[in-house]
Amino acid sequence: MTRFIHDRGVRLAAGLAIVVAIPMAVLFYFQFKSLADIETTSAVVLRQLSSETADSLARSIEDYLKRPHISVLLRITQRSTEPLDLPFIEPILNDALTESPFVESFYVWTERGPRANQWLVFDQASKNFPNGALEQRFREDKVVGDKLLMRIRELLATRRAIVAFTETINGRPHYVQAQLRFESPARQRMTSVVAFAVDAEKLRRDYVPAVMRDWLASVQQPSGFPNLETEILDEEGHHIFASHPEPSASEHYVPVDERSFAIIFFDKELLEFAAPYEQHREVWGLRTSYGPQPIPEIVSASTRPQLALMIVMIVAMGLGVFLVAGAAAREVRLAELKSNFVASVSHDLKTPLALIQLFAETLELGRVRTPERAQEYYRIINGESKKLTRLIENILDFSRMEAGLRPYRMEPADLSESVSKVLTRMETQFSQGNFTITPKIEPDLPRILADEGAAEQAIENLLANAMKYSGDAKQIEIEAKRLNGHIVVSVTDHGIGISRREQGRIFRKFYRVQQELGGGPQGTGLGLAIVDHTMRGHGGFVRVESEPERGSTFSLHFPIPSENAFQGTLVESAR
To answer: What is the CATH number for 88?
Structure first.
């Protein structure tokens, strides 16, 4: 919370994220809501399509089955059968065989007229015999007639106008339906019959599936969803028709709507006038489904790609906002660091300049009374001049590094000598700060390829850094040794130390530990950044080991080259 309050970069990033996140959250809320509405609407549409299809198919089959009753049995009146008016009856039956191909035979019988008590048959063979006499087209079938008249007379006791039953004709089961005419309304004496027979197996195998296929061809399937599948099953659950290629697969299908219809060949409203169907009638089932998935899963699967796309967009936009906010925060922090850098550089430049000016004026005015004091002033002026020079060199070197113009002239170098030169050069600063320097240099260290000036500057920066952050502990150790194929130069202080969280940041440009500590020594924040760049330019690296309040150890790892690497001088420009 403290960092959020004081860090302008974090505040900017949070504000930017909020400004973008709120409108996007509202937008995606309505998008998700619209997907939910689409799923609800789709489910309603699919259920409605299934329900309407099931109702229409059941009605179509019922209409298909009752067509011969309406177009034949009801059109041939008692007047046309007593006696038989064959010229009137023949075209009606002829049209009925075309209109209702599932009817195998029509029958007429009467006890009055020239063809009394003859069971006359009119079927497809009669229809295909157009040149024969009318009496020949209506042929008598005494065997079938005796069998069917016996069944009909058994049902006369019910005194119903319509009788329907199953009977085996020519070795095959048939549905038989007859319209009975009586002498009087009391229905005690039957005087004529008009009937038809339907082959049960052909109805099941050919005609009902043909009706289903014709009707389903006109059904518009839902777009973007599985097709609506339909199937018809008999009373024992055997498939009579299935719109999908594998009827056995329907065992795993989830039914949406189920309808049932009786195998009767007249209006259901006439059941009270029919015998013996009020006791039993065969009932088939019609079932619709969209495959093995229920409707909620189907509509959910249809919106899943849009949902996945929206989630990807949310993640992408969230990542974009995060990256933009992070970049903005980094730019704000960088601007602050640059501002602090300018202030620090100004301070670091003024301090040595002020001391140089002070002691130079003192010497110029002749206010120094002893040669020893004058010598001390000269030494101070010289030390501050070197400090000022090193500061300016750091700034110039960093500028060249940023521009990629900092060359490294790689020549054979002895790091033992480089460490000694740096210690000699900084001796005045050590004595002024009352520092005790403990060098530990391993003898006979191998030479390396290095830019001697850059390597000495890196070592000097580490020593200056150690002096700056040593606090009251005035002990500094510098060591040079061979380790794992590298010459390692390490500088150890016993000062304020660095937390583990900050150890990854200290090599960034302009970063200074004292900002987090709320005070402490000043600096440009460039020393360690230059050290890191220098080591990468030499093919090595810099490492830090530190604990707060227990000091720090910075180690420069210079790779030891092979012997043939000293054949020439290598000039390398590193970024």
So the answer is: 3.30.450
Residue 54 lies in a domain: no
* 419 and 568 both lie in a single domain: yes
Exposure class string for 171-200: b at 16+ Cβ within 10 A, else e: eeebbbbbbbbbeeeeeeebbbbbbbbbbb
The answer to whether 451 touches 573, Cβ cutoff 8 Å, is no
pLDDT score for 517: 39
Domain of 492, CATH number, reads 3.30.565.10
Residues 457-481 pLDDT 10s? 899 889 988 888 888 888 999 999 9
Q: Are residues 410 and 517 in the same domain?
A: yes
Asked if 470 contacts 494 with a C-beta cutoff of 8 angstroms, the reply is yes
Q: Is the pLDDT of residue 53 over 80?
A: yes
Q: Containing domain of residue 15, as a range?
A: 2-40+303-339
Spatial CA neighbour of 459 closest among 556, 573, 537, 558: 556
d(CA 465, CA 527): 8
Q: What is d(CA 516, CA 565) in angstroms, rounded to the nearest whole number?
A: 45
Computed from CA positions of residues 180, 183, 184, 186, in that sequence, does the dihedral angle turn out positive or negative? negative
Residues 99 and 227 in one domain: no
Task: Quote the pLDDT of residue 345.
Answer: 65
Handedness of CA 350, 352, 355, 357 (dihedral sign): negative
Tell me the whole-structure pTM to 2 decimals.
0.54
One domain for residues 168 and 244: no
Give me the percent of the chain exceeding a pLDDT of 90: 23
Q: Distance (Å, rounded) from C-alpha 510 to C-alpha 312?
A: 38
Residues 501 and 540 in one domain: yes
Helices (H), 69-133: 78-81, 86-99, 124-127
For residue 514, CA distances in Å to 6, 208, 221 come to 15, 92, 74
Q: Are residues 455 and 536 in the same domain?
A: yes
Both 549 and 466 in one domain: the answer is yes
Question: Looking at the predicted structure, is the pLDDT value of residue 274 above 70?
Answer: no
Of 285, 318, 339, which residue is a domain's last? Answer: 339
* 114 phi/psi in degrees, rounded to 5: -65, -30
Regarding predicted confidence, which is higher, 204 or 506?
204
**pLDDT digit string, tens, across residues 143-170:** 999 999 999 998 888 888 888 889 999 8
Please tell me which residue, 28 or 104, carries the higher pLDDT value: 104
564 and 501 in a common domain: yes
Give the pLDDT score at 221.
81
Q: Which residues pair with 551 in a beta bridge?
A: 547
Amino acid at 461: N
Question: Which helix (H) or strand (E) is 50 found in, with range?
Answer: helix 8-68
Domain assignment of residue 507, yes or no: yes
What is the domain count for the chain? 4
> What number is the average pLDDT over the span 271-286?
69
Find, among 286, 219, 291, 227, the residue nearest to 259 by Cα: 286
